[in-house]
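User: Could you go from structure to sequence for me? I need the amino acid at each position, not a summary. Structure tokens:
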């Protein structure tokens, strides 16, 4: 058998295995529970207004290049939930400076949070680099995203939300924009789901 035909045969055999592995990873990521009362993720490329209930989080404050915020926060946050036997939920939240609403800002202070399943969870050990926060109910405008978790994607989709707000003067932005990351780092980039959101109020 010629080498070219052999490689083609091996490729045809391997392709279903790769697809099955990707499917399993996506299914596992989707099985991670949301905090109690959270709405379902916004479908990709859709913009919608969503109401969130009060929730509690363990939060790490990061300063530097905003694209590196979630990567730097992962280990401290994972240690926090592990040491307190707190189950992982989805999504991971990253809140960005309000300055990112006005211009292309790529440095600053970001707050990255692992969200608790319910507000009844009280950690017994809290490291110095983690703060436990209670967040009030929140109305947001949100855009669903599928694809790599890049900071450029955050900026591009934030601009889409700002255009939506300009077309809907019945709403006003009132707080820090944020991003929700729904899938694990091991999920293939094309399958990763996220949202960019701006807290709003009705005028």
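Assistant: Here is the amino acid at each position, in order:
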């Amino acid at each position: 058998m010629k080498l070219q035909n052999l490689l083609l045969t091996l490729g045809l055999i391997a392709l279903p295995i790769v697809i099955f592995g990707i499917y399993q990873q996506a299914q596992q990521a989707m099985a991670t529970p949301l905090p109690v009362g959270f709405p379902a993720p916004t479908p990709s490329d859709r913009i919608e207004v969503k109401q969130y209930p009060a929730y509690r989080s363990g939060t790490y404050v990061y300063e530097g290049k905003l694209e590196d915020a979630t990567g730097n926060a992962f280990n401290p946050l994972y240690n926090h939930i592990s040491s307190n036997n707190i189950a992982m939920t989805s999504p991971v939240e990253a809140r960005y400076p309000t300055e990112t609403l006005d211009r292309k800002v790529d440095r600053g202070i970001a707050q990255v949070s692992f969200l608790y399943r319910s507000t009844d969870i009280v950690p017994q050990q809290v490291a110095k680099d983690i703060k436990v926060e209670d967040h009030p109910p929140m109305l947001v405008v949100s855009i669903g995203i599928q694809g790599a978790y890049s900071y450029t994607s955050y900026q591009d989709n934030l601009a889409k939300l700002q255009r939506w707000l300009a077309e809907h003067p019945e709403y006003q932005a009132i707080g820090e924009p944020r991003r929700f990351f729904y899938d694990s780092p091991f999920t293939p980039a094309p399958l990763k789901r996220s949202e960019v959101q701006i807290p709003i109020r009705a005028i």
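One structural detail worth keeping in mind: The radius of gyration is 19 Å.
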